[in-house]
Write a structure and sequence with these properties.
The complex is a heterodimer of chains A (159) and B (282). With 159 residues, chain A is an alpha+beta fold. Chain A folds into two domains: 4-81, Beta-grasp domain (Ubiquitin-like (UB roll), Roll); 86-158, DNA polymerase, domain 1 (Orthogonal Bundle). Chain A contains six helices and five strands, in the order ββαβββααααα. Chain A has a five-stranded mixed β-sheet. Helices cover 33% and strands 24% of the residues of chain B. Chain B has twelve helices and 16 strands. In chain B, helix 10 (226-232) packs antiparallel against helix 11 (241-251) and helix 11 (241-251) packs antiparallel against helix 12. The interface between A and B is medium-sized, with 33 and 31 residues.
């Protein structure tokens, strides 16, 4: 057993203190130590986007950050987004547009899409595709995902 | 796979980071954004004994304007560069290239210093720095020195960094009124590593002066296409011979193939990216 460190962080608005091996990555910590299995582990080298989640307000790859690096951070996973309703309209739009089939990419896709509708907000299909380019989906062919994101961008602009 | 075990230190200032780094007995890796190092560790291509996490060293994270230059701290993240008014005003080549550097979630972590120190031949940043004539400042416990980007990148993952040194900052000149820049890369998916790419900087284009054509992801490191630069100097970019001279220059360039494409394909793709970039600059 190698080096371990104590970390304290906020996960989905709850404070957590745990002792973690320094080699443990963030997404494994969330899944295995905290039971938050909504964030998926795909490639473990930052290519597929399945582990994308929010750390201190920005979307990052959960597999390319160590749990020990998240000490003092605030993290929101797909479970947290489900509770706080921040992505409720996006979830509805994904459902309406059949923007998922197997659902494996969806938590990461939702994180990237949420960053787009909250910060970029450009109602342009090419810009949406570019922003989601770091998230693989092997079911939908992306068309319906872009449809859903565009719908939400347009709906939010009217509010 | 998961990373092999290592010891972990997170210094809170540059002096303590340099103290830790001043250790010739241990295999040390510096952790900046981690967007290349973490995959390498997960694949066990990298198995450092000690990982020094620089994410607590705030003095390495800055973007400063001073006189005719912009200096960027090693820990400035790509997303910060994209959001910076200093960069958008004074470093238009970065503005052109940044959207092509990986994906949004990767740019939220990845740092300029990490890319420079890694020297991946497929990465954009080393090519951009050569095109801009940038200077890289490196520091160790005992000394600080400046190295031109031209001399810094030596080969595949190989740089002029010595033992105990780390990249402190990168200094680029501000763009002047007549300067023109171009950037283009070919990828299978937007944001993936380029199959071939080019960064072009020109002092002026009508007629052409001070032209730098830097190809990346086609060789062991970003390399200038000097034969074409010399032929195009003093001419109009849209003259009919421009593309023919580029093609001739490419036959003398040392291309190297990789997993995606052999040297011959790289040569063809290099011609395509240069043509498209020059057309966009006219």
């Amino acid at each position: 057993m190698g080096q371990t460190e104590n970390i304290t962080l906020t996960v989905n608005d709850e404070q957590v203190t745990e002792s973690v091996p320094v080699r443990l990555n963030l997404v494994d910590f969330l899944r295995n130590n905290l039971g938050l299995t909504g964030s998926h582990v795909g490639c473990e080298h930052g290519v597929c986007g399945a582990c994308t989640l929010e750390v201190d307000g920005v979307m990052v790859r959960g597999c390319l950050m160590l749990a020990v690096q998240a000490d003092g951070s605030s993290i929101t996973t797909i479970e947290g987004l489900g509770e706080n309703q921040r992505a409720a309209d996006l979830q509805d739009a994904f459902k309406r547009n059949n923007s998922l089939q197997c659902g494996y990419c969806t938590p990461g896709m939702m994180a990237s899409a949420l960053e787009y509708v909250e910060t970029i907000r450009n109602p342009d299909r090419d810009a949406i595709r570019e922003h989601l380019s770091g998230n693989y989906c092997r079911c939908t062919g992306y068309q319906s995902i872009v449809d859903a994101v565009l719908e939400v961008v347009e709906e939010r602009a009217k509010r | 796979m998961k990373a092999a075990d290592f010891a972990y230190e997170k210094p809170v200032d540059l002096a303590s980071a340099l103290d830790l780094l001043n250790d010739e007995d241990r295999d040390i890796q510096l952790l900046a954004g981690g967007q290349s190092l973490m995959p390498m560790m997960n694949f066990r291509l990298a198995q450092p004994e000690l990982l020094i996490d620089l994410n607590g060293v705030d003095e390495l994270n800055f973007i400063e304007e001073e006189g005719e230059v912009i200096t960027i701290g090693a820990m400035a993240r790509y997303s910060q560069l994209q959001a910076s008014p200093i960069i958008s005003q004074h470093v238009p080549l970065f503005t052109l290239a940044l959207p092509h550097i990986a994906h949004a979630a990767v740019r939220n972590r990845g740092t300029i210093g990490g890319s420079v120190a890694l020297a991946d031949p497929a990465a954009e940043m080393p090519a951009l720095l050569i095109a801009l004539g940038a200077t890289i400042t490196v520091i160790s416990k005992s000394a600080e020195r400046e190295i031109s980007a031209r001399d810094f990148f030596i080969g595949i993952y190989e740089t002029a960094l010595g033992n105990g040194e780390l990249v402190k900052s990168v200094t680029v000149p501000k763009a002047k009124k007549d300067n023109v820049y171009g950037f283009y890369e070919l990828t299978r998916r937007h944001g993936d590593y380029a199959m071939a790419g080019v960064a072009i900087a020109a002092g002026s284009i009508d007629p052409v002066s001070d032209l730098k054509i830097v190809l990346f992801s086609v060789s062991d490191k970003p390399r200038r296409l000097k034969d074409a630069e010399a032929v195009l100097d003093g001419k109009d970019l849209d003259n009919a011979d421009a593309h023919a001279s580029v093609k001739r220059a490419l036959t003398k360039f040392e291309f190297q193939g990789d997993l995606n494409a052999d040297a011959k394909t790289k040569q063809h793709l290099a011609g395509v990216v240069i043509k498209r970039t020059l057309e966009g600059m006219v």
